[in-house]
Structure formats: structure tokens, C-alpha cells
Amino acid sequence: MPGEAMHCWIVVLDIENFSSRPDPIQRSLRTGMYEVLRAALVRAGLPADDIVTEDRGDGVLMIVPATVSPIVLAGPFVRALDDELQQKAVVYSPAHAMRFRVALHQGLTARDGEGWSGDAVNTACRLVDAGPLREVLAAAASSRMVFVVSDGIYQAVVRHGHLSLDPAAYLPMPFRTKHGELVESWVTVPGYPAPPGLPAAAPDRSAQADPAQTGPTEAGGAQDRRPAGGSVFSIGTVQGDAFQGDKTVHIHTNGPVRP
User: Over the range 110-136, which residues count as b (16 or more CB within 10 Å of their CB) and which as e?
Assistant: First the structure.
């Protein structure tokens, strides 16, 4: 019934650099986006009639019933999106290039007369809008899309390595929202062994050399030192006291740096 919160899978899809295109191309991209989405739903065997889609102008919010397997959403559905985008790339001009940022989250959502709302919807939108996610897609020049999942989805679904899912192709992408909230997430780029464009941890210059915490020394080389704690990265540029950048302003990294 309207207003009653229910548990759903939440998918958010956005087109890269949509607002920078002329109006005629924006209209064409929207047509292409829905063609790709509908074809991917069919190819993945998802119940399109049971999935609610809400238009976001440059993308789509999808409310998927909890009865649908998240393995299908993170596996066959993502691959189908990538395949359909490849088909579009064959006929689209460079000015009409269409690449997606796609996020998957889960949680309680409620519907009113205007659409869907809830903290889970907000989180899914933050994932797809995250500055680091945009950087990954920009760095993956030959890719057609980037896919991010919340930490809960990664821990419960992806990391177990179900058939069609490769945990090794994901890297952690924690970030802070414009309100300072820390969001843990994991990102992958279809067709890439690991997502490019994530910032590497900066060396901890304040730490003293400790033989117990340094790596082996190669012949004629320096010791490999890695910071024990996390590092903070800023996205954007600073002009005076004003920060110029995306909604996401910091990235926190913890643990060892993965190549």
C-alpha cells in the first residue's frame, strides 16, 4: 500500500556527461538509454513488469522486488548493460557517446503519490554521483560503464564469488558525502581486471622508519614502507576558501594498497 516501507534492491543508472550535450543529443541519449535498459532486463531474465522505473532526466531509478536475486543484478544484468552499450557504440558518433555509471544498494523504501523515498534511495543516489566513481569512469577510457555496490552488497553477495561474480575485479571506494558522511562502497569496471583511477595511498612522512613495519629491501633499492593508517584525499581544487569539485570531497583508504 502507498506509504508502507518495504525492502527492495535499488539500482540507479546515470549517463556520463549528459548535461554538457546539446538538447537534441540529450533527447537521443535518453531514447538510447531506455532501449539499452529494456534490452538488458530481457537478456538477464529479469521481471521487467515487476520492476518500477522512475525517470531522473539523465538516468533512471529502479526499485527491484526483494524476490529478485542480487546475483543476477550484479552479474548477468550488468554484463547485459555493457553488451547493449557496446552495440550502441558501433553506430553512435563520438559526440553521441553513451557511457553509464550504475549503482546497486538495498534497503527500505516507501512510495507516495510522487515517487519513491527513503535513506536507502538517498544512499544509492550518492553512490552513483560519487566523485571517485566519476574519476574511475574517466580513467577507464575504453570502457562503456562503471558499476559500484554498497559495502553491504559486496559483503553479502559479491565477495562470496558466486558464479558470474568476480570479487577480484572490485576495489574498495570509501568516500565522504558533502555532509561529511562516510560511505563504504566497492567498484568494478566490466572488461577491466581492476578499476583504474582510484587514488593511491600517500606515504606517511610523519612515521619513523621502523624495521618491524618495513618491507624487504631489494638489492640496491630502498625499503618498501606503507602507512599503517588510512590517508585522506581531496577531490577538486581549492580557490581561496572555496572548494571547487564534486559532491564528494574526501576519500578515506584503510589497509594495504592494492595494485
Answer: ebeeeebebebbebbbbbbbbbbbbbb
Q: What are the pLDDT digits (tens) for 236-246? A: 333 333 333 44
The DSSP bridge pattern shows strands 223-225 and 171-172 to be unpaired
**Cα separations (Å) of 8 from 67, 107, 212?**
8, 6, 48
How far is it, in rounded angstroms, from Cα 175 to Cα 250? Answer: 6
Q: Where are the alpha helices (DSSP H) in the chain?
A: 23-43, 70-72, 78-91, 119-129, 131-139, 151-156
Confidence of residue 93 (pLDDT cuts 50, 70, 90): confident
Bin 202: left if φ > 0, else alpha if -120 < ψ < 50, else beta.
Answer: beta
The one-letter amino acid code at 78 reads V
Report the C-alpha gap between 73 and 26 in whole angstroms. 27
Residue 254 backbone phi and psi in degrees, to 5: -135, 150
Smallest CA-to-CA distance from 61 within 129, 1, 150 is with: 129
Provide the grid cell at 160: 562470496
How far apart are alpha carbons 30 and 232 in whole angstroms?
A: 37
DSSP 47-73: -GGG-EEEE-SSEEEEEEETTS-HHHI
User: CA separation (Å) from 204 to 19, 66, 225, 227?
Assistant: 39, 44, 9, 5
Q: What angle do CA 244, 186, 207 make, to 5 degrees?
A: 70
Collapsed DSSP state (helix, strand, coil) of residue 248: coil
Give per-residue pLDDT as tens, 165-220: 999 999 999 999 888 889 999 999 999 999 999 976 544 444 444 444 444 433 33
Task: Give the predicted TM-score (pTM) of the model.
Answer: 0.77
